[in-house]
Amino acid sequence: MKISLIDQQANRVLQNEVICKIRDLINTRNLERGDKLPSERTMSEKFMVKRNHVREAIRKLEFYGMLKSVSQSGTILAIGLTGFNGMVDEIVSMDAPAFKELVETRISLELEMVGLAAARRSTADLEKIKNALEAFKVKMARGEDYLEEDLLFHLAIAKASKNSTMVSLMLLLTPPILSTYERETVCEGDEAKSEIKKHEDVYLAIKSGDSEQATEMMKKHFFKLSEYLKSRD
Predict the structure, then answer these.
(1) 3-class DSSP state for residue 96?
(2) Which helix (H) or strand (E) holds 34?
(3) Predicted pLDDT of residue 82
(4) Cα–Cα distance between 198 and 216 in angstroms, integer?
């Protein structure tokens, strides 16, 4: 089920409000680079929002390199106040990305990741990719909604790339893609047998350690989606 545009906007507004409250708190306390922020619990009570809302805002600021979580220490300010304040202004003023923008970014990212996965994957990585593939195949063969299993397959590939930044990007892209995916249009005419084979070809190329083949198979996998995006120009 798609999340309504109203709900998406409300969540975005709330997240931006929490980010601004974190900014104001940092400025009020005159924190400097390397200084520790209050705990999530303390901030959730001070801001009068749920703790998970504070956690999501912190994760977003961590993604942009503005905050950093340190084991056993908590969250610290990773950059100076001038840069922090300027970047917060840019973040809260950004428009929510459109479906096309999200998917274009995902395709570009995955074509790079799959090549790295083929070169760097471990036996454990292959097992996780295979398990995700099998779950996808079951749902696809039964004619059931397979979108989440498909994305888990791609996330397993992302982790096999051994590039934590790319994994973070995939995790950032996945929720909005799930909530806005135009399945009825994008997936129209999909046949289980051919779709399963595309996924299997990607997996086999990664298993063989052939980065060029893995990239080529991923391009074929995304061909229909790429053509759909072109039709929206």
Answers:
(1) coil
(2) none
(3) 93
(4) 11
Please compute, for residue 72, the number of CA atoms within 13 A of its CA located in the half-sphere on the CB side: 0
| 230 pLDDT tier (thresholds 50, 70, 90) | confident
Task: With residue 164 as reference, give the H or E element that holds it.
Answer: helix 164-180
Rounded CA separation 79/66 (Å): 6
Which burial class, exposed, middle or buried, applies to 202 when counting CB atoms under 10 A from its CB (0-12, 13-18, 19+)? Answer: buried
CA-based max dimension of the chain:
60
Q: What pLDDT, on the 0 to 100 scale, is given for residue 4? A: 45
Residue with tokens 């977003």: 60
Q: How far is CA 188 from CA 41, 137, 192, 223, 228, in A?
A: 46, 18, 12, 14, 11
**What are the φ and ψ backbone dihedral angles of 62, each rounded to 5 degrees?**
-65, -40
For 186, residues 6+ apart whose C-beta sits below 8 A from its C-beta are 224, 225, 228
DSSP 79: S
Half-sphere exposure of 143 (CA within 13 A, CB side): 1
In angstroms, the first-to-last Cα distance of the chain is 26
Share of the chain above pLDDT 70, in %: 89
Residue 181 has pLDDT above 90, yes or no: no
